[in-house]
Amino acid sequence: MGTPTPLRPPLPSGSWITGTRFASSSPRGRRRSPLIRRACLPSPQLAPRDRSLITVASVITCGNTEQLRAHLGIAKQNGLTETELKEAIIHLALYAGWPKAMSAITVAKEVFND
Asked: Structurally, what CATH architecture does the domain formed by 48-113 represent?
């Protein structure tokens, strides 16, 4: 067996992630940062539309409504319709819980009415 081919190329120095919370001066953080950077890059195995749906679902499930506004906008740019996003939120009520879904609906109404 040879050397495995990386799934994604590393980011060039000076990338957008430099200076963010993913950048770290600790030895442990420096080892972890390249993994996080590569994980955040798009890959051909998952379409941007699908990636956005997964991201929106994850943000809702974690209860991070402060980030939801931006991710709903990105999801629409990546081809998801308002109806599909609303249905995803309703479906998540069963799995993430009613309060998180209702908080997400409140944010979605604000985003979709803008």
From this structure: Up-down Bundle (1.20)
